[in-house]
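ok so for the tutorial part 2 we go from a plain amino acid sequence to predicted structure tokens. step 1 is just haveing the sequence, like this:
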Amino acid sequence: MPTNALEILDGRASAPPLLPTGDPAPVERAVLAGVAAGFPPETFLWVTFHRPDGGARVRYAWTGGGEALGDRIDRLATAAGCDATDWLHIADRHQLTSARGRVTVWAYPLRPVLADVEGGVRGPAERRDGIRRLLHAAAERTGQAPRTYAPPWLGFGPLLAARRSRPVPPA
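step 2 — the prediction. this is what the tokens look like for a chain of 171 residues:
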């Protein structure tokens, strides 16, 4: 009886058979690694896996050097008082979009994002007003007042991405 994950059959090692599971995570991680391999260093990837039931799962990845650079950008942006409107504006300026089947990839080269943050690029007043109107309309529809009409900077680095990935507790 073998003692490791590989079985020895006829003197050759063979991997255990793949068995179907309900867990999409291993396949998503493999797809994410393949997607990341196709982008240059210092890129933030926002990858959406669209499910057949209409739902979606979002995963984040960074190519070489992207994690540290993304966190640096986030520290600079938050210190400068940047918010979600600024993030959306800067992200839109640099977003590269591609799709592969049920997978949508938004790629953000981080050096141009850093240049925008260091250069003081901010979201235009019209977009800021639009976000306020959207939040106001959502408040009227749900009967819940928003915590703020200026949501925080979303982030390009893993520290803020981890914050974004956690469920928000009810107010």
